[in-house]
Amino acid sequence: MQGSFLVIEVMSWAAIRGQEAAREQVLRYWRSGRWGHAYALTGPAGIGKRLFARELAKGLMCERRAAELAACDRCPSCLQVLAETHPDVHVVRTPEGKHSLPVEQMREFCAALWRKPLRGGWVVGIVEDAEEMNAESANAFLKTLEEPPAGVVILLVASSWERLLPTIRSRCQQVSLRPLGREDVAAILTEHGVEDEAVREAALRWCRGSASRALAIARGGLWELREELLSRLFQGQVEVEGWVKRCLEYAEGAGKESAAQRERAELVLDVLLEGLREGLRWGVIGGSGSSPEEQRQQTLGLRFGVEQILDWQERTLQAYEHLDRRVPLPLVFESLFEHYAQACSGLKVQTTPAG
Ligand SMILES: [Zn+2]
């Protein structure tokens, strides 16, 4: 291991955990002379795709680059990329409150890529939310994506490769980023000062390898909401209006960005689904749970029976699809809880375990 190169390299890329394979892939293109002009960084939310794009931009732009594509984090170029003020790094993203990337913004972005670099090096264009291009903005983008000026690198950030339009996919190389491992998420929680063991455990359990989900769980009061909803559901007390209001409060606690709100809405569905799954298990196998949590789930199984719980599960899974299709959150929750409530109002209490 030789000296300062390694130190610099580790400092710069260390901020991005768990994506060594993706980084290796990019380095292979760089070393092999097959360096392309467009890369799609794909993978679920909260695993570091935007950080990765920034790091790559920094690595290309750095004035004191020591190792391959590894930035020094100190030169004027690096500092400008970090502050999002570098004149040759252009970013386009879906504006807050919009569900697609408007064509006007795409045109501006492309025009910027065609200008001469102000600092004389590479020009990097980053398209965040690349799957949210509509047909019009994709059309406006295609020519630049297909044949950008020399020295331009375009990085597309997308939640999955399949969600990109085929015309976009055929013009870039995929770099797939992975969900984070438990250790990486645990380290990120520590970095963000999350110390309470129960909260950490909950975050690790529900995060599906996503750092942003883990932090949303640790900070947003998901655990309390889970208790509230499940304990009432298990008693057959679903009050639609109040539930919708409570869940919206929780989702909106993530801030104005709709993606962050949807992420929290998804977490609500996660905890409901898990509660139902457990209830179903007790409903099917019977027996008696030993912990208060198990006894509660068993009550759900007994009270509603297997078919009803399966139906709720089905509806909850549909709600994920609604979220995916950008149905407004109040409607997603309302239609789901209406369905829960219907079954509660016609409650037929079973006195023996099913099966
Ligand atoms: Zn630098």
Automatic annotation (TrEMBL):
- This protein's UniProt keywords: Nucleotidyltransferase, Transferase
The name under which this protein is listed is: DNA polymerase III subunit delta
The EC number(s) attached to this protein equal 2.7.7.7
Output one GO MF annotation.
DNA-directed DNA polymerase activity
Instruction: Name a Pfam family for this protein.
Output: DNA_pol3_delta2
The top EC class is transferase
Q: Which Gene3D superfamilies match?
A: P-loop containing nucleotide triphosphate hydrolases
What lineage, starting at the top, does this entry show?
Bacteria, Pseudomonadati, Planctomycetota, Planctomycetia, Gemmatales
User: Which GO BP terms apply?
Assistant: DNA-templated DNA replication
